[in-house]
């Protein structure tokens, strides 16, 4: 059997209607990254930052956002393998992989549908807006002590130990829909063993395309199922 690690980025959810981060104007839905995705930005203007993620959370919960064929192909692929042979690391904060049926998922940049206490770090499932008046779920007299459970620039991504252990031991590494601009995820391909089959799936070539053995160029909804078929042919399963 082969051990597989998949890394996904915003491109895998683009065809579900969730915009990617790096638009050509360098802005993330009209904002500079420093404004809405750093602890400093949150300290400077918490209302703006909370509202930014509130809008994203509402959109994710709207009926028009659904897992697409790429999410489904990854979930079906995982289901055909022993659980210990497959890890899906996602930089996305949406829940579309889990909704498609993926099981062994590490959301390394956090989850939009969770809130975190700024004082204690406790994490809570969260479907509503977060505001400066939101009561703490356990201590309702405390208001405005919650933030989105999102890893901002300058903060440590989640579950790095588990990720590192999977990367150094994998036979196949597939990077899907990520620009390769944000570390540490952009460096994962370099952590895989020399004999590992490294595959990139992207609409265009990314910043670290040269680190991969093969590339599948095009939309994730077409290329991910195509790649899974290629993997099955290669490994005869
Ligand atoms: P980016 O927006 O930087 O890159 C998206 C990538 O997806 C690009 O390389 C596109 O070419 C590709 N792409 C777009 N549509 C696609 C499609 N339909 N099929 C296949 N590929 C497609 O997003 P990420 O690389 O995920 O971090 O960004 C990494 C991190 O930077 C994010 O997790 C976020 C961000 O700032 C935090 O918020 C901490």
Main features:
6-stranded parallel β-sheet; single chain; elongated; 9 helices; 19% strand; alpha/beta; binds 2'-O-acetyl adenosine-5-diphosphoribose; 237 residues; 3-stranded antiparallel β-sheet
Helical fraction equals: 25-40%
Radius of gyration: 18 Å
Small-molecule binders here are: 2'-O-acetyl adenosine-5-diphosphoribose
- Overall geometry comes to elongated
Largest sheet: 6 strands, parallel
Question: What order do the strands of the largest sheet run in, or round the barrel if closed?
Answer: 3-2-1-7-8-9
Mean pLDDT: 94
Number of H- or I-type helical stretches: 9
Distance between the termini: 10 Å
Which stretches are poorly predicted, pLDDT < 50 over at least 5 residues? none
Order of helices and strands: EHHHHHEHEEEEHEHEEH
Q: What does the oligomeric state look like here?
A: single chain
Strand content: 15-25%
Task: Please give the number of β-strands.
Answer: 9
Structural class: alpha/beta
């Amino acid at each position: 059997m082969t051990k597989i690690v998949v890394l996904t980025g915003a491109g895998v959810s683009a065809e579900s209607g969730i915009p990617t981060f790096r638009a050509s104007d360098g802005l993330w839905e009209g904002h500079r990254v420093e404004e809405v995705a750093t602890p400093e930005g949150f300290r400077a203007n918490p209302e703006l930052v909370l509202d930014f993620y509130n809008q994203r959370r509402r959109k994710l919960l709207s009926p028009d956002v659904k897992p697409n064929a790429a999410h489904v192909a990854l979930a079906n692929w995982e289901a055909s393998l022993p659980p210990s042979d497959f890890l899906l690391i996602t930089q996305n904060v949406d829940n579309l992989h889990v909704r498609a049926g993926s099981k062994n998922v590490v959301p390394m940049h956090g989850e939009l549908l969770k809130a975190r206490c700024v004082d204690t770090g406790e994490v809570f499932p969260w479907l509503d807006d977060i505001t400066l008046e939101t009561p703490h779920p356990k201590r309702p007299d405390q208001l405005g002590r919650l933030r989105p459970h999102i890893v901002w620039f300058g903060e440590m991504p989640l579950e790095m130990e588990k990720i590192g252990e999977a990367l150094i031991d994998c036979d196949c590494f597939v990077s899907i829909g990520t620009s390769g601009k944000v570390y540490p995820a952009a460096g994962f391909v370099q952590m895989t063993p020399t004999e590992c089959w490294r595959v990139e799936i992207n609409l265009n070539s990314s910043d670290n395309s040269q680190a991969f053995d093969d590339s599948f160029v095009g939309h994730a909804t077409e290329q991910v199922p195509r790649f899974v078929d290629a993997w099955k042919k290669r490994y005869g399963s």
